[in-house]
Amino acid sequence: MRSKSRLFALALLTAALPALAWAADTAGDCRIGAYRLADGSVVDIGAADGQALRWRRFDGTVGALHKGDDGRWTSTLGWTDRPDGKTVVFSDCAAGDITFDTMSGHRIAFDVADTTFEGDGVKLAGRLVLPAGGGRVPIVVLIHGSEDYSARDFYALQRLLPAQGVGVFVYDKRGTGASGGKYSQDFSLLADDAVAAMREARRLAGARAGRVGYQGGSEGGWVAPLAASRAPVDFVIVGFGLAVSVLEEDRSEAILEMRLKGHGPAEIAKALEITDAAEAVMASGSAQDFARFDAVRAQYRAEPWYKDVHGNFTWMLLPYDEAALREKGKAMQWGTPWRYDPMPTLSTVKAPQLWILGQEDLQAPSAETGRRLETLAARGQPITLAMVPRAEHGIYEFETRPDGERVDTRNPDGYFAMLRDFARDGRLSGPYGDAVVTPPPANPPK
To answer: Are strands 103-107 and 33-37 parallel, antiparallel or unpaired?
Structure first.
């Protein structure tokens, strides 16, 4: 399973539907683990929704595994459902052996400690995964995105990084998995939880804790710097996050998608009248804002470009009248800070930061965020920016179907290596595939 991390799509699309049942998920399957193959490389076998498992390699290649009647598992490329020719055979779980694409391997033993700890007024479930042994290691605390499922069940980084000598602390965000409390998008509250997770990771690791810091994706890109501003850490890694507000995310996505669909400045300006009205509804919900939203979409509904108005959440509001939106909104009281400006926090974080952005990200358009980060770096903030061409949200490479929909194929080569190296060294020493890495200035202003 993975999150495309649209902040608000999940509840809006499912509010009127029966609760989703994840009984068929493969979380807890005894074959899940990282395996060292005969050539020294690693393949991770993780959980997925449905009856599949999912394999990943440190080079970014990934596929889904489907069990055949003969006990062999066949693979499909990325999320394409297209066979890639790979087969996998597992031994019984006690033996821990694997044959992956004709190469034998054995499950890697990690030092694992499950725990519960106090977040901000709630008990959270976490797990520390360290490379086996007694030496000091860097530790990455994984901060979730906006997904509503268990990170402990589905985050492959909890094995991929320890297999590379970097420890991981993974925890279920409040209201998900085995953690208590109510699901939230309150960045400040989630940052307090992240600080508690960092302290629990240090406590469990004891003398083995070397450099300790955060890795946050998407929504976690707002949360991780906040957490780093509240308690010292050694590094912050943000993937496919934003240095703009939630409302600005919607607006920038609408502009980008309209451009990609061939619309000019006049049409984009009209589309932004719609997104501005939709954003006001989300931020306030006042009768005046609903009236404005009704009026502007009625004005433009017959225009040929109207069907292409998207944004991060505007598109989900368009089909519904005020009564329906207010009813759906009852399930969306998540404390979302719609106008939160991350720049003041980013300007004060002292820990070295690595931001990895996808140049083709439609859900969290990266151009303005990249520009802002470069400005902060030029002013002396220790920010390294890695821009990955041909990568979308999640830092995934993708194919585009004839209907225009994207389907992801893999993570880019070098992506996981950037996470490992920055956690270990506090800097990148590349190259990392096709990523364009901009380190902070050698002599920043005082």
So the answer is: antiparallel
Closest Cα to residue 175, out of 186, 164, 162?
Answer: 186
What is the C-alpha separation between 90 and 70, in angstroms, rounded? 12
Coil/strand/helix, residue 422:
helix
Q: Which residue has the tokens 């190469």?
A: 103
Q: What is the pLDDT of residues 362-392, one digit of tens each?
A: 999 999 999 999 999 999 999 999 999 999 9
Q: State the pLDDT at residue 334.
A: 75
3-state secondary structure (DSSP) of residue 25: coil
Query: Contact, 68 vs 76, CB < 8 A?
Result: no
Q: What are φ and ψ of residue 339, in 5° steps? A: -105, 15
Least reliable range by pLDDT among 12-21, 293-302, 389-398: 12-21
N- to C-terminal Cα separation, the chain? 45
Mean pLDDT score, 275-280: 92
- Residue 336 pLDDT class (50, 70, 90 cuts): confident
Q: Which three-class secondary structure state does DSSP give residue 34?
A: strand
CA distance 79 to 246: 28
DSSP letter (8 states) at residue 79: T
Distance between CA 279 and CA 277 in Å, rounded?
Answer: 5
> Which of 140, 144, 107 shows the shortest CA–CA distance to 420?
140
How much is the pTM? 0.91
Q: Whole-angstrom Cα distance, residue 213 to residue 47?
A: 25
Two tokens at 110? 């990690």
User: In this structure, what token pair is assigned to residue 441?
Assistant: 């200035």
